[in-house]
Amino acid sequence: MKVMEVHRIHFTEIDSTNAWAKEHGAEFDPKKLTCITADVQTAGRGLYANRRWVSKKGNLHMSLFLAIPPDPNLSQILPFAAVQVIQKENLFVQIKWPNDVLVEGKKICGVLVENTPQGVVLGLGMNVNTKIETDQPTTSLKELTKKEWDLENLALAISEKFLENWQKGFLALKEEFEKLLAYKGESITCKIGEKILEGILLGITDEGHLQIEREDGTIHQIFSGEIHQLRSN
């Protein structure tokens, strides 16, 4: 299969690369993967509406646009690509379902996937050369590797690895993805709206849904939610 070309668009400052991609998706070449990056985002967004991704200069703020119908596995394929790129530094990297990347148990990257009439927008924010202080434990690539990272090369490497994985299909990646799954086999809580479920994280389905086993032995599939490791007192 011919590898799709990556078309790069870069801004010094923008409100949100995802918002811009959604607004201009009809203008992009549907035969290419469009990669939009920015030095600074003034209104970057996270997976949850009440959270903002702090977007300082020196970190990676990027959105990918694919002119395809909605695909539920894209939100696993993109963080998996990011992991493959940074794993080369011999870091202990995990994926916290649905699509956060953790290094040494601290968040380094988040993904937001949005569907539009023209295609799919995949936003990725990664702490690279500046550590971000948030209400969650975080880290950065520079802090971990003691070196400055070239953001342009990093964005291209993740884009190309994403394309390679997307063309393989998620089922070809699922076994390796599950090896990276944080808290697998452990007790977790999963917040779904106002409801909180507790159980053992078993793994994911072929569609990328979470599977947990409740105390009564029933298996639940989780389509969306926020999980946390349940620590014993």
Describe the fold and architecture:
The structure is a single chain. The protein is an alpha+beta fold and 233 residues long. The protein has two domains: 175 residues, Bira Bifunctional Protein, Domain 2 (BirA Bifunctional Protein, domain 2), CATH 3.30.930; 43 residues, SH3 type barrels, CATH 2.30.30.100. The chain has a seven-stranded mixed beta sheet, with helices on both faces. Strand 10 and strand 11 form a beta hairpin. Helix 2 packs across helix 4. The longest helix has 18 residues. The chain is globular, with a radius of gyration of 17 Å.
List the helices and strands and how they pair.
Layout lengths: L4 E10 L2 H8 L7 E10 L18 E7 L7 H13 L6 E4 L3 E4 L2 E10 L4 E7 L14 H5 L5 H18 L1 H10 L7 E6 L2 E10 L5 E4 L5 E4 L3 E4 L4
Parallel strand pairs: 1-2
Antiparallel strand pairs: 2-3, 3-7, 4-5, 5-6, 6-7, 8-9, 8-12, 9-10, 10-11
Helix pairs in contact: 2-4
Can you give keywords for this protein?
single chain; 233 residues; BirA Bifunctional Protein, domain 2; SH3 type barrels; 7-stranded mixed sheet; 5-stranded antiparallel sheet
N- and C-termini, Cα separation: 53 Å
Helix tally equals 5
CATH architectural group of the largest domain: 2-Layer Sandwich
CATH superfamily caption of the largest domain: Bira Bifunctional Protein, Domain 2
H and E order: EHEEHEEEEHHHEEEEE
Strand order of the largest sheet: 1-2-3-7-6-5-4
Oligomer: single chain
Helix content: 10-25%
Q: In CATH, what is the class of the largest domain?
A: Alpha Beta
Overall, the morphology is globular
CATH T-level fold name of the largest domain? BirA Bifunctional Protein, domain 2
User: How many structural units, i.e. domains?
Assistant: 2
Give the low-pLDDT segments.
none
Please give the radius of gyration in angstroms. 17 Å
Count of distinct strands: 12
Overall pLDDT, averaged?
A: 92
Secondary-structure-based class equals: alpha+beta
Mind describing the biggest β-sheet? 7 strands, mixed
How much β-strand is present in the residues? Answer: 25-35%
